[in-house]
C-alpha cells in the first residue's frame, strides 16, 4: 500500500510520518502531484495558519489536485480546516470548499474558557469508518483556536465552549480536528482504520 503525506508550508507534518512508522507503514512525504495521484491513501496534516496555507496551495496548484483526488484522503487539524469552504482566521479566507461549512473562531463564554482549546477531550456521536470498533467515548488530543460547527458532514462531536465537529466525512474525504498522531493508542487505532478504508 502506498501512503503519501502532502508536503506543504505547514508544521508538524513529520510527526504523522513517525506515527505511521509505529504502525509499520513507510509513507512518502511529497509535493509531487503524480506521486499523490498514484498513492492508495493520502494524508493532509498540518499546524499553521490558513491564509498563508491557501496562498501556497493556490500558487502550487495543489488546491485543484486535492479536490480531484478519489482515493481516501485524511485531513488533520489545519488540513481539516483548509478543506472547508471558508475560515474566519486571517481576516476571512476562502478555502478548498470540499466540506460546505465554515471555520469559526472560538469565543470564550466564561472566565475559565481558554483559547486555544488545548489538551485531551472526548469524542462522541462517532459515525464514520475512522471510528470502527469504538464502543465508548474516547479521549483524543486537540490544539486549536478555530472550530467547525456541527453540520451535515460531522463524523464526531466534541464539546468545548460549545459542541463542534471533531471529525468530518464526505465521500472519500475524512478529516479530524484533533491530532491522531498525538492521541496515543486511540489515535493509532484511528490511523489504522483510515489505512484499512
Automatic annotation (TrEMBL):
The active site is at 77 (nucleophile), 179, 181. Gene3D superfamilies: 3.40.50.880. Residues 9-195 form the Glutamine amidotransferase domain. Its EC number is 4.3.2.10, 3.5.1.2. Signal peptide: none annotated. One of its GO terms (molecular function) is glutaminase activity. GO terms for biological process: L-histidine biosynthetic process. Coiled coil: none annotated. InterPro entries: Class_I_gatase-like (IPR029062), GATASE (IPR017926), Imidazole-glycPsynth_HisH (IPR010139). It is found in: Cytoplasm. The keyword Hydrolase applies. One of its GO terms (cellular component) is cytoplasm. Keywords: Amino-acid biosynthesis, Cytoplasm, Glutamine amidotransferase, Histidine biosynthesis, Hydrolase, Lyase. NCBIfam families: IMP_synth_hisH. IGPS catalyzes the conversion of PRFAR and glutamine to IGP, AICAR and glutamate. The HisH subunit catalyzes the hydrolysis of glutamine to glutamate and ammonia as part of the synthesis of IGP and AICAR. The resulting ammonia molecule is channeled to the active site of HisF. This is Imidazole glycerol phosphate synthase subunit HisH. It comes from Bacteroides intestinalis.
